[in-house]
Amino acid sequence: DYLVRAVSRRRYHGVLGINxxxxxxxxxxxxxxxxxxxxxxxHSEADYVVMNVSSPNTPGLRRLQHGDQLKQxxxxxxxxxxxxxxxxxxxxxLLVKVAPDNDEAALAAMAEAFVEAGIDGVIVSxxxxxxxxxxxxxxxxxxxxxxxxPVQELADLALRRMxxxxxxxxxxxxxxxxxxxxxxxxxxxxxxxxxxxxxxxxYRGPALIHEAxxxxxxxxxxxxxxxxxxxxxxxxxxVAGAVRAARYRRAEGSSPDRAGxxxxxxxxxxxxxxxxxxxxxxxxxxxxxAVRRR
Length: 294
What we know:
By secondary structure, the chain is an alpha/beta fold. The chain has helices at residues 2-8, 31-42, 67-88, 104-117, 152-166, 181-189, 199-204, 206-218, 238-252, 258-270, 274-286; strands at 17-21, 48-52, 94-98, 121-124, 172-174, 194-195, 289-292. α5 (152-166) links the parallel β4 and β5 (172-174).
């Protein structure tokens, strides 16, 4: 409730994504109640809502990524989303955030569940439980999710695997280990339609945002290249636009025409000024709010 009151008074006019999840003390069999409660509370304020089923800090939460638990959660949440959309007269995209620690089979099963449920987008990925590469550091064994450069390889692998199964049917937001322009562009090469920045901004500051935009703009006009879509993706219409495109491809049962879609986004991107491109990616970098049922 505090978050809802705060964002209702915001002066920020960019894209606002709100993460929702279950409480630590909520039994797994009642998890859907928490997600639906949060969705109802934030729907009127959010431009898109993220169902976080992959936080490493909530015991047992990641089990919701699999099997019947995932399918039940998706079905109930989608029904709530549809009801709220109809009442509000606008569509608020519903995305799911997954962990990078899942194997290929698990990610493929999730992807098919997302398509079947009609989920609007997938965020790949959350932080990792792995401590590979940091065990030699003084605090390398501390509990919690590991972010930044150490998660880059795992996040990129999860992104590639998720994209291989989705094949353009559901938009993907790439997250994890973006520390420079090249790592941002790499996300799109692996299948991401958009990216989000977190830890990298802390260490690099606004310079990282500038680098990421520049890296995606350089090849915006190259046919068949997936770059050049970050700035266009940071407007209020982008997630919904990506959702509509993915739903059309699902209905047609065809593979995505990447070259055609990229060239269209590239044309829009080139019409943006440098300031507009910088501001657009900044919106995505700063739009990360979390809400939990109290």
